[in-house]
Amino acid sequence: MDTSGLPGLDQRIAGCRACPRLVAWREEVAATKRAAFADWTYWGRPVPGFGPPDARLLIVGLAPAAHGGNRTGRMFTGDRSGDVLYQALYDVGLASQPTAVCADDGLELYGVRVTAPVHCAPPANKPTPEERDTCRPWLVQELKLLRPTLRAVVVLGAFGWQAALPAFAAAGWRLPRPRPAFAHGTRVRLDGLDLFGCFHVSQRNTFTGRLTPAMLREVLGEAARTAGLPAENGGTAPQQGR
Length: 242
Ligand code: SF4
What we know:
The chain has eight helices and five strands, in the order ααβααβαβαββαα. By secondary structure, the protein is an alpha/beta fold. A hairpin with a 2-residue loop joins β4 (187-190) and β5. The chain is globular and about 45 Å long. The N and C termini lie far apart (41 Å). The relative contact order is 0.16. The model is unreliable at 235-242 (pLDDT under 50). Iron/sulfur cluster binds at residues 13, 16-19, 22-23, 46, 118-120, 131, 134-135, 138.
């Protein structure tokens, strides 16, 4: 068992029980299940980041979904938000397949890692500020381990932005003052790292058209090219099956 580097960090995250409310919720959801997934054995634990340890691009979300990542054990896997995200990553050439249904479905990410500032599914998708702060050291450690190769980050949504900026500071990047506000399409240059803001791939945003597949591909494509990854033209890629 590899206990060093990112694999070791992922293992330690998966065993964390620091937030009593979230531990109780993730385990209750795993025990009661949703009827459609009654034959699943839910993961029911913190969900570590997903993607290679030498990623050049990092995507930072919010927290796992109760019946998505909390069920499958992999970030953005098994829920509608993940369908949108992985389809877009596939469209710009950063994922091996457009779907993510379970942890052993064969999905590979190319130079990209996906993580979250809160690793346990929260009730109503809303972690408390205390839970966000308690989980931050995991993100700080992940950023430090990725730092040698990391060149760009896409942060999904205002919560992730507010949670992630202090983690970047704690991991050694100097942030502008005042701290830049979140906006879709915003881009902030740190030393050796570009941060991109993007609306979250939540159902509320994608169903209402606030975030379209083209908007998502555009941000991912630009961030990937900034990171030196061979992304295809994100802004004009055809919509596949949507
Ligand atoms: S949210 Fe983070 S700090 Fe809290 S129990 Fe889960 S992994 Fe641990």
